[in-house]
């Protein structure tokens, strides 16, 4: 089978690829019972417990798990390159459940490896190879864009700052993404670098089914502009390479949180894609819901629009994923019925339109000559010779008109005349539009000239101001130098004063320390003496208290004894009255009482003498204590005098310190003021320098804009437009755009087929 025999058809080409089972699937599950037919187009899935009958599916080609990356590219995607270089839009989509091998099919595991790289790097290489095989008169202008649809938000992968991009549509560009970065490229290396950069910015994370699961739909766009340098005809085609995110069952992936929201958005967009495909294939829908999802809106031209499209469905061979595999196979089978309307995207240049108009005028002149010849022939057939106008030729009789119309020459001339008239109308319309565009461009150029003159005068005025500013900057620089010199002098003076202040502070600290030592020593001695005296007094007090207590006890005993004696007397009187015979005994008792009373009195007198002695001793101790206190007072007075002297010295030092602080603060304020003035001058200087840079850039931009306008005017005069920055010419002159190993194999046609 030829590689591109189906490209003439407007149907979407659908290819099916089964990946090999992974380690987890091989260890835990069996493979689906799949039968691949020898024609490589049909497969049959045999029944199991869930499916009651075999199911057959037919596609444009089926790749078994043993199929190489090279074979997948050669069969499915290589023919698209030929269509793109002919001027058609091309699309390659990869569809399937998560972990089914879509990204491996599109990108490969290593874009630099010959065997592992996927469809996208191989297509890029083929584009540059075909450019080398094209004639040198064809100029190629290539641009690359790379974006992703993540959570229904279009993000620019080449400029990640750009997000939430909008989808627009117009007649010339069709459906496009507004403000999407497009980078001009001249070699496959540049394309691969951009591809790697964009892949780093993609949303990828790990799930239970795939360690590197794509969380977004990626779209890689390669724009190809071809211009013929001889007839100035142009073709603009776009190649869309789409890696769709895989559908997920949350029960299998066990995602939560952010990943769960991602899975919901992915499944929703893929569901909308299925709805669009059903609407395109059922033949009953009057409305196709492209706008219900950003994915379907971007792929509107690829699905039923202006594009040659290839769909690669990726499947897992494991029984664990059997339901998802059957769903993917049914999706691809439905998509085979979609009919696209591809057309060559050709742009006519003004020169080409003029040449076509000239050809139309030339053909009209030829036809007019033929008509004149026919008129002469008609006149020779019997018409009036004096009337040469076309109206007079219609006045001949009906039979002669019928005879003339039967002639083949008349029919041929009439049909050609109608065709030329239609072409002339179209070409004149194009010419009017081109002339209008030319007038608008000339008006714009005149306005640009006026603005450039005005800007030039502004530049001169700004240059004059720059000169004045430079002079003021010089004077301010001199002021800054003077201020810095005075600042240094003041700093030195401050340092000297700070040293003097430090020495005075040290002297003050030493004096304070010596005073504190003297005070502590004297206070310690006085405290020790007072403590000793207090201890002696306390001891004497204790002794006196004990003696007093003893005396009080004796006094109490004496009072008790006296009280008892009074009671005895009363009893004695009673007894004397009652018992007279005991009189003698009473006298003895009275005598004893008197003796005891005398003893008690003596004891009382003795105790009073002892108390007197103790009081005298206490008075002596008290006088001694007073003498010690006087000595202490004298010592404290001398200490106070020395303290007063030291405080006077301290106050003098403090006054000197305060004066130094005041002078220091004044100097610091002066320095700060000078520093702020210096900084303000520096800031003003920097601002002036920035203004100078801006003015220089502005002047350079104006000059470059003038040069650019002049160059555009020249190009427009020769009717040659060039919208891209980087151009490539066909032929081997562009082998710098390819790697050395690739250039070595270019002349061989066999290597191209491989």
UniProtKB/TrEMBL annotation:
Give the record's keywords alphabetically. Answer: ATP-binding, Coiled coil, Microtubule, Motor protein, Nucleotide-binding
Pfam families, sorted: Kinesin (PF00225)
Please give the coiled-coil regions recorded for this protein. 350-377, 664-698
InterPro entries for the chain: Kinesin-like_fam, Kinesin_motor_CS, Kinesin_motor_dom, Kinesin_motor_dom_sf, P-loop_NTPase
What SMART domains does this protein map onto? KISc (SM00129)
Q: Which positions in this protein are listed as binding ATP?
A: 96-103
MF terms from GO for this chain are: ATP binding; microtubule binding; microtubule motor activity
* Any one GO CC term of the record: microtubule
GO BP term, pick one: microtubule-based movement
What positions does the domain Kinesin motor occupy?
Answer: 11-338
Q: Which family does it belong to?
A: Belongs to the TRAFAC class myosin-kinesin ATPase superfamily. Kinesin family.
Instruction: Name the chain's protein.
Output: Kinesin-like protein
Species per Swiss-Prot/TrEMBL record = Stentor coeruleus
Q: What is the lineage of its organism?
A: Eukaryota, Sar, Alveolata, Ciliophora, Postciliodesmatophora
